[in-house]
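User: Thanks for the earlier help. One more: Coenzyme Q-binding protein COQ10 START domain-containing protein. Can you show the sequence and predicted structure together?

Assistant: Of course, both are below.
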Amino acid sequence: MSPTTIFISRPTSTPTLQRHHHLVRSSRDGALQAIPSCRSSSSISQIFISYSYGARKRSPIFTRVKRFSPVMEWQDCTVKMEIDVPTSVAYNCYSDREAIPRWMPFISTVKILEDKPDLSRWSLKYKAFGRDIEFSWLARNMQPIPNQKIHWRSLEGLPNRGAVRFFPKGPSSCLVELTVSYEVPQLLVPVASALQPFLESLLVRGLKRFAMFAKAQQTLPGDV
């Protein structure tokens, strides 16, 4: 199986950063390939990571890291992945907010407010950087576009906002694009240089698990 190469770029001075992960299928063997990237007007630090999906032995990891200067501004992460379910199935699965902890690695609970169903309380629990990380926030789901877009923003707690977009690729597949924007919490300022690529890896893992979750939901009796 040919290796998948992940390309990650990091900013050294700009306060605004956009990264894009493209997960596509290899025309040779059908394996998913992740190609993250970012665009910035300033100089860029780069990391190259090479590995093979499904390989029995882990491929060597090659890195090239330059100096990083953390900037405490809003950070944007975008991950894209093509999954083998129709757009309507993917949209319905992602609309079930309380099910998100089943596939997103760092989300522990999501609870929809009974009297205000557009509001939900989220909690994040994850062990990383040698510490237990816990945050919570209240989020409002904005007006969705059925089978096209789900988006939200936090009202209190951890400042964040995001959107999920769905693009049909055929009768039985679609492209899911997840964008999460956040402010670096004060607790994580000491590890800010490592936070962005770490979150990117979590979002990639989350979408892979979402693809399996949506596929399983599609095969349940009564689901289309």
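User: Great, one quick takeaway?

Assistant: The chain has one domain: 4-218.
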